[in-house]
Amino acid sequence: MTVTGYRRDKMLYINLAGEMDECSAQDARAKCDKLIEENVNVNRIVINLSEVAFMDSTGIGFLIGRYKKASRLSVPLYIENPNFAADKILNLSGIYSLIPKAE
Amino acid sequence: MTRNYLKLQFYSLPVNQAFARDAVAAFCLELNPSLSALSDVKTAVSEAVTNCTVHAYKGNLGIVTVECEIEGNELHIKVSDTGKGIPDIQKAVQPFYTTLPSDERSGMGFTIMQTFMDEFSVNSIQGEGTVVYMSKSFEPEVENA
To answer: Nearest by CB to A56, which of B47, B104, B115?
Structure first.
């Protein structure tokens, strides 16, 4: 799984690409947290999932973990563009009440 | 009636999670599944196989067996291990129940298997292992006149 980030004004944009499962999550977690730690002065973090081709329930745990991290920094987190399969899992978990979809 | 059978055996290594779900997905292609049905099967298999790595063998090396059978337009999947077993199945299948919250586990694995597949059951004996059975039926293709 590839994790890339960029800043746009006060927004941190994190792009995930590839397959998210138990095998790939650990590395993605470390990379994502590093990006968040390097950008603590943002007022919004958006995790883009459009290039995530596969995701199982590991993705739920992963996103909640990043949500907790962002919450400790008082930065709101958003999810952007999950594909239909990822969206199905995220809906089932009720995660959108914590991490809304970015408009 | 279409009949086909596949048996996979592999080490409970995390790297095999993708292999297992992709192999099962490839096997059921002959049923002409919709993209959404195929993705449901891949996700359910990924959950079952991940449970073997994370829970049944807890990081130790063990053998995971995935058996698939096609019968007509139905796919039957059996994922089994000879790991430590589940002490309380009723608890384990509850949404958000996890024994490993510190590892960022969601506790949604069994819920996803149940929701994404048509049939689901789990049998386990402590100290002997666990068998997860799932099935899904694929809509036969309708020809538009």
So the answer is: B47
> How far does Cα B119 stand from its chain's mean position?
11
* Residue A51 CA: distances (Å) to CA of A78, A90, B34, B78: 16, 16, 20, 30
Most B CBs within 10 Å: which of A23, A32, A56, as the mutation test of the B interface?
A56
Query: Pick the catalytic residue: B47, B60, B73, B123?
Result: B47
Number of domains making up chain A:
1
pTM here? 0.94
Q: Is residue A103, in this structure, part of any structural domain at all?
A: no
**For the segment B111-129, what is each residue's pLDDT rounded down to a tens digit?**
999 999 999 999 999 999 9
Is residue A16 assigned to a domain?
Answer: yes
> Mind telling me how many Å the CA of A43 is from chain B's nearest CA?
24
Please report where in the chains the tokens 């809509």 appear, as a residue.
B139
Q: From the CA of A67, how many Å to the nearest CA of chain B?
A: 11
- A38: CATH: 3.30.750.24
Domain, as residue range, for A71: 2-97
Residue B85 — pLDDT band, cuts 50, 70, 90?
very high
Distance (Å, rounded) from C-alpha A20 to C-alpha A56? 7
